[in-house]
Amino acid sequence: MIRPTQIAIPTLVRVKDGALDRLGLYLARGGHRRVAVLVSKGLAAPLPDRVTAALNAHAVEPAAWIEVADNDIESAARLFAELPKVSSVVGVGGGKALDVAKYVGFLGRLPYYAAPTSLSNDGFCSPQSSLTVRGKRRSLPATLPFGVVIDTAVCREAPRLLTLSGVGDLVAKYTAVADWKLAFAAVGEPVDDFAALMSDGSIHAFQSHPVLDAHGVRLLATALLMNGVAMEVCGSSRPASGSEHLISHALDATAARPRLHGLQVGVASYLIALLQGENADRIAALFEATGFWDAVAADPFDQAEWLAAVRAAPAVKENFYTVLSSRDVLPEVERHLADDPRLARCVR
After folding, report:
1. What are the C-alpha distances in Å from 74 to residues 43, 80, 82, 168, 213?
2. Which of 41, 114, 169, 340 has the fewest Cβ atoms surrounding its Cβ within 10 A?
């Protein structure tokens, strides 16, 4: 693994209440008077009107206003081909719109501004776009946003399950970094200590106040943002994604009803922490404090699907050493799913 010679980190970062209403100001300050806006299809009112008002207030023209429903690569390529002349691309809403907007900006070599309206995962500030290619989800190279505008008041009003999904994606950094260090010991894969430190520190910041109030949501938003930067620092997904993500990807491919990415990843992180022998208590306490366990237990996962996903997970990503590569973990997983009271509530 070689650290990139150039690291493209966000230049403008606004994480505060009311940030969405200043989006036009931030664009105008950057000299962007003609932009393409990609928004999530069905974005709840009055958010689209607020974006329009914010742009109009500073004479920023939305030369293209596109509602994004699908995140397949064909749609992204078509949007890029049809893009009018603009100086930047703005993504507003949830994961699909942000991933497509990021990829369109990447293809056009245009500055990209991300304005997530929920905090369901760390993808809004990652060096990749999650798109479907021939029906399968792929993480394609992209660039980090030039600007990240997170209206914490808007995110607090998002469905609570989306925020809890973000909590689940955040704790994955514990198990991802542990897997990274296992890979170093087993196969000599280099560890970027600074990237690992960034990832680890972001979790501790949120754990200092694991409450989904104004302060906690701001900490969560900042932590997820820093995870994306950590991936850019080392040129790899290793600081943010390990065996817990492999299980989630396997569930996406095989489960009858895949759930929110962060919910799958969060439960998988706790399971993997038990296999790794570290951080399980920290994860459990954070989930208890935020209500994560109760939310997942209200709509539990299918145990047979999880066992199948654990079997399939090691083959999801080639040459990616994790605790799942170290031994046959299936007997341990079966025991934990049966005996651990938290997992027994969430995976039945």
Report:
1. 22, 10, 12, 30, 39
2. 41
